[in-house]
Fold:
Amino acid sequence: MTALVEKRTVDMQIIGEWVEPRSKVLDLGCGRGALLEYLTQTKDVRGVGVDMDFSRITACVARGLSVYQGDMTAFMRQFPDGEFDRVICSRTVQELDDPTTVIGEALRVGRALTVGFVNHGFWKNRVDGLVRGRKVRNEVYTTEWFESRPANPVTIADFEHFCAAKDLRITRCVYLRGDWKTRCWVRPNLFAGYALYDLAR
Amino acid sequence: MPDLDDTLTTEAPAPAPAPEAGSVGIVTPVDFVHERPFVCKNGQVLPGFTLRYETYGELNAERDNAIVICHALSGDHHCAGRHAPDDRKPGWWDNLIGPGKAVDTRRFFVVCANVLGGCVGSTGPTSLDPATGRPYGMSFPAVTVRDMVHAQKLLLDALGVAALHAVIGGSMGGMQAMVFAIEFPSFVRRVLAMATTARESAQAIAFNEVGRQAIMQDPGWNGGDYPKGGGPRVGLAIARMMAHITYLSDASMDRKFGRRRKSGASGESYTFDVQFEVESYLRHQGQSFINRFDANSYLYITRALDHFDLAQAYGSLEAAFAPVNARFLVVGFTSDWLFPPDQNRAIALALLRAGKAASYAELSTDLGHDSFLLESEELYALVRAFLEREEPRVFDFSI
Structure:
């Protein structure tokens, strides 16, 4: 729990630095609403979260957040271009069935898109998979393959390749080491456990 | 729509009455009499009106802890507790409302009134027109959902309510809840609308029309002019039977009745007596309905629902919600085919597009439209979360 709190805190702090005060934010895969509540309280944002799960929606409602239960792409299609100042996709991108569509829609309804994900190319994840010959499972990826949702094990190299191929502009990025706290400056695809990007069209 | 004749989740008969924990106990309806003229949306004027209502809990010193419960088409003001110790069943939303329940009467002052145009104590077509001394019948004004809400607002004013902590309603009650927030934006802080719609679909209008035709084609209807207790009993029963089907679902009816036969009905007996349990159940629904509901009220209220269309009334749904200050929670139910999830989603999406605080949650159920009445810990937790949030909170970082 403590490690989780620390990781969550750094993650939120960085996103918090990127978010403009009083801006309009859409959080895709908002979970129980921790990030949105943090942004609401520290940045006074007007936020909306989207998630699929009823109990997580209940948790968000308990936090006083606006939240929508349903498919995130279908949700975004209900809004005009540039409706949100920022769309956030924090630890969601690896669970998307159709990342191209989701990211495309996010950059249509949002003027900026923040993406944060666990780097599958992190050396420990590589070694873990290589040595065990099984789906990566460690303190970062804690679930068995049969109990987790469909996952794209995306790496930093993969994601940056995607951005180049789709002509998406990376306006900011931060790589964090395996502790998800310390900045990583060298060969992030190998040495970073976590990556955060700010994208624009 | 509240189903007064049937318990949704329990098959067993209601247990012997006992002072239940979490019950508001014995309650007594009260009549609010408004003695000044009331102008309906269409310009017609009622010289005055009566609303029958019940309250549970206490109004606080700030007079802002009131929660209004809006009932559905065939519901009434009796939503919690019992009228007498030996009442077989409590109010229609007793599972939700009471001390310690999701709508906690230890904290909130709960008000539920029977709607204008109804027949369970409030002024409607069965009421006597003071100008003629006879029941209004078809000369009753064409009430709208907005009129129902305005009449309730007068009651709340009379009760001294300064602000509504929330308005809660399912189905037609959800429509009223939305209209409350639109018409009285500074008065309403939260809206919880379930299994509802911002505009009646063609299918919903079609069902209503079948019910009305059953009533109006019954010779007993007589142009709406019939003695108290008389009238189109067959037509009203048929209307109720048909409507009742739309409140359930294929799966829930199959679970409850399947193809089970009434005892004595044999496999090859091709008569048209009751043979299947589902037939017996529907006939019972129809029969018990005619003993408590008025056919003209049924016509008036279904017509009010048909005309309900917030987008058309205000230009667009976003424009309709523009004045709203209330925080909304809209709940859809997966098996509701009368006001399906999409129609509930559309409300939340329009509110969000209008820049309002709104949430949408969807509960997986197989009980159909009446799901909003179901006993569900998940639903209770959601309602409690929406009504009881205290701010600010300590951060909880669990994912």
About this structure: The interface with chain A takes residues 327, 329, 345, 348-349, 352-353, 355, 357-364, 378, 381-382, 385-386, 389, 391-393, 395-399 of chain B (CB under 8 Å). The radius of gyration of chain B is 21 Å.
